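ok so I'm stuck.
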Amino acid sequence: MAIEARIQNPAYLLPDAVKAINLLYKAAHSAGVPGGTLELVHLRASQINGCSACVDSGARDARKHGETEERLFAVAAWRETPYFTEAERAALDLAESATRLADRSDPVPDAVWAEAARHFGEQELAALVLWIATTNFFNRINAATRQQAPQNWG
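replied:
not stuck anymore, here's the structure
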């Protein structure tokens, strides 16, 4: 049984929303965090949220930033693989904590934040938090309206 979108993506139905989203994207990607790290964070949050459209686009965009299949296949199990740098691990841990807000009373524990702050400056941390929140925003829109990954990429 094929799942179909309930409506076109709301961001495209409201032109001012696209402008705001583009500004968020630009801000998050202009603070010095490597593009590949942002793509890994996007992919991991999207996996947690079960957003097929964002998992698909996240993996494709990560490949454009030079990510290997080996690393992409391991993102869901990043803790158990040797493929990620300490900085990437800190960003992925921050992404998981900030995505799973209801899983614990202190959603982003001090240890998670401190490890991220060890690798990223204040503006980079701001960009990571903004990008994680933006990813979760995309995930929620896509889940609510049942947006799907493209079927024919060719």
